[in-house]
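> tool_call: predict_assembly(chains=two)
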Amino acid sequence: MGEYGCFDIIGPIMVGPSSSHTAGAVRLGRMAREIAGELPKEVKLMLYGSFAETYKGHGTDLALISGLLGFDTFDERIRSSFTLAKEQGLRFSFITGEKEERFHPNTVKFMITTHAGENLTVIGSSIGGGSVEITEINGHPLRIKGDFPTLITFHNDIPGVISKVSECLARYDINIAFMEVFRKEKRKTATMVVETDEYIPNEAMQEILKIEPISHVRFVQPV
Amino acid sequence: MVNFNSIEDLIIESERRLISIGQLVKEWEAEKKEISITEVEEKMRTNWGIMKESIILGINNPQKSMGGLIGGEGRRLHDYCLTQKTLSGNLVNLAVARALAVLEVNASMGKIVAAPTAGSSGIIPGVLLTMQEHLGVDDDRVIDALFTSSGFGIIIAQKASVSGAAGGCQAECGSAAGMIAASVVELSGGSPRQAGHACAMVLKNILGLICDPVAGLVEVPCAKRNALGASLSLTCADMALAGIKSVIPIDEVIVTMGEVGRCLPESLRETSKGGLAVTPTGKKIAKKIFTEKK
């Protein structure tokens, strides 16, 4: 009886009807909000695969908007999220995408405009049982699962960046749980995803941002 | 920490210590998570509270499901068994009505407890609340019974599966029915060994059950399979309490369920590419939903 606990079997408490199409969709929306740093001003959501085919019957659309509003998977306001989004001034629209082989069957692309006017593209998939993965931010391939506090850096792919980041985290007594580095091409732009046991304070984020080859950092709370 | 790798392990340890499987699993969970038994109990009490709320909501205030295919059937059966002479007995019908009601709450974006999944979330609350009232036991006993279900579910998840995409509906509604059969045997004063037999008899009867949701939605035939899971669990629990044994031991039945699940073609594992989903009516419904709502 190693990997499962009692509350994996009796639980979680969630709003139905489907862990992958509803609960997973809420979590994807929350991660997109976390990556944007705030409730976006406007978002276009492109749905792929089974998300595109069955989103109405599973409330996937309501769930994704709920996530952008910061709701939990057990929030009974999920059903009325469209009205609540309009009240909060979030403009949104859904489009269905053509099938793309590289995507998991339950995939969504968020095309976000923030209040500061920044444009952001986030792609993520619901991979079963409520587990999710963000697989792309602004065209950069990566993998974020949302189970831990997560630091994401965008930097030039040159030696030494990883050690500088990990040195900074160590100074703040932050333990790295998992870490992955991604890039499209050698010595061009790269991303680093660092999942930590502890919350990363703003001062640490500012210090990391000062590290020379790093152009952007983002911090994502577990969802 | 004692580790359990089979239902037989759970039964032997419970018998040795003269406690229920539920109590044993509860202690194990507390030890594993390094929290107190009270904390573990409170967490389960919260789940039980949500389960009861979902029953009340589904019976008193039925909603049409998101796909529009179900809604109000739990209430209908509930009213029928309160006012008519039923064929299979009012208790069984009440448990079934409640199982239907919870699944309807799930399908209309209401709050439920996945047990073990959202698609099979009606069976355990429906049966357990009905047996709690029938046997006149308090919430503490019911919470222990939910730990019995968890223990059986954990072994099933490890040795077979509780996911329709991996193992068909047998893995979801079958597991839920088997888990709650074991629980109500203990709730009714049966032995850990009898609980094992009850679960085995349920699983033997749903072996091979496919997962074929119409239009990909957790509505048809999911609601009625929750209903059948509820009634089957009570039949098997009664057989076990009467002293009837499963000739094939529970652990062997679980392994078999996993093997049968892996043998099911992909079209019959939650893909909506086979079974009832591709009947003329199933296809017509899918077409209607997708053209209307896209």
